Amino acid sequence: MNIDDLKDAWNKDEPAGMHLPVSTASLGKTSSAVATIRKNMKTEFIATLVSYIFLIAYSITMRFLVGPGVQTVFFLNIISILLFTILILNFFYFQRFYLFYKSIGRYDFSIKNSVNKIAYELELNTEIYKTYNFCVTPVAVLITITLMGGKDVFDWFMRLLSSNAFMSGTMLLIFATILISFLVTYFFVNLHVRLKYGKYLAELKQVMDDLGSE
Amino acid sequence: MIEQNKGMLFKICRIYQDDPQDRDDLLQEMTLQLWLVFDSFRGESKISSWMYRVALNTAIVFFKKQKRRPDSELLPENFDRPQDPNLGEEKEAQLALFYKALQQLDKVEKALIFLYMENQPYEEIAANLGISQVNLRVRLNRTKNKLKEIIKKMNYEY
């Protein structure tokens, strides 16, 4: 068999059993890497918005649950400042992700340029995603614990802040909580990124290597 | 435009995906991408060259699904057999074997052989892949030899 001799047969051949999609409505339901990334990004954005609505609504109801008082107002003020800080962080990262969302999936470059671009953007944004979660998640966890803990946590914090002596045991407990929440976040975010995008990235890098060895 | 060039799309699906459902998914994705990026076509090259580029890029960054849907409709069993009655049995068998051998190439080699079989000029193939023409010729020879070895391993005379 000679490959060149097969060219005629190749050009006459038209695989049977396949049909073009009949309408645009049936398009866009596929599972390409880019489509999956876009879908995940959209889901996470919606989940973040929902969590904000939940946290803000809960903060407002806390005022009525705990009852009026200096302590309640004090903690609601602190939580509002923390929420606003996270909001700013979210805004920064999501506008970066939005740019990535709009730019991925241009397929009219050469294969080398297209794959390089997608792989580069994907790797860059997974790293940004990791730092974003590393910054935001532990703070969000602490806010949630404070809110969920209700009056007991409020009182406990109040005693700590108004204490005249340095409470080494309590401080160690707080440091340990912060450290553990950072470590858990780091572990799960890395695992999540590796499971979700690691395979795609490895395959894209393989194609880059195959094209790059001039 | 897509209807006129559907044979090219079908062949790319056949080369890049061995599962019938994945082929259908890839065909959908390629059609979608051709719709989405059509505005970027500026007429600097032939429409077919532009389609080759978009379709191959889509195939290369397309990944198989982890799990198949239970309601997947399988394609006919004879899908891998060429359907043209004028081909002749020997050529038909050779082409089926050739398609099977192509499955063992990597993604870039598949694109290279596909464009070569489609009679694309070396200049166009090099531009579509993003490599130099010298590199292209070296790779083409290397890939042809690799195919020869694969077919030999499949116990057929090359």
Question: What is shown here, in short?
Answer:
The complex is a heterodimer of chains A (214) and B (158). Chain A is mostly helical and 214 residues long. Chain A has helices at residues 7-12, 33-66, 70-103, 111-162, 168-212.
Mean pLDDT metric of chain A: 77
The count of strands of chain B amounts to 0
Q: Helicity level of chain B, as a percent range?
A: 55-70%
**How much of the sequence of chain A is in beta strands?**
under 5%
- Total count of helical runs of at least 4 residues of chain B: 7
Low-confidence stretches of chain A: none
Biggest chain pair interface = A-B, 49 and 74 residues
The profile of the biggest β sheet of chain A is: none
Low-confidence stretches of chain B: 68-79
Helical proportion of chain A, percent range: over 70%
Q: End-to-end span of chain B in angstroms?
A: 37 Å
Assembly type? heterodimer
Please report the total strand number of chain A as a whole number: 0
Largest sheet geometry of chain B: none
* Count of alpha/pi helices of chain A: 5
Shape of chain B: globular
**What portion of residues of chain B belong to β-strands?**
under 5%
Task: Give the helices and strands of chain A as they follow along the chain.
Answer: HHHHH
User: Termini distance of chain A?
Assistant: 29 Å
- Helix and strand composition category of chain A: mainly alpha
Topology pattern of chain B, helix = H, strand = E: HHHHHHH
Structural description of this entry:
- Helices cover 80% and strands 0% of the residues of chain A.
- Chain A is mostly helical and 214 residues long.
- The radius of gyration of chain A is 26 Å and the shape is elongated.
- In chain A, 15% of the residues are buried.
- Chain B has helices at residues 6-16, 20-36, 47-60, 89-102, 107-117, 122-129, 133-153.
- Chain B is mostly helical and 158 residues long.
- Chains A and B meet through helix 1, helix 2, helix 4 and helix 5 of A and helix 1, helix 2, helix 3, helix 4 and helix 5 of B.
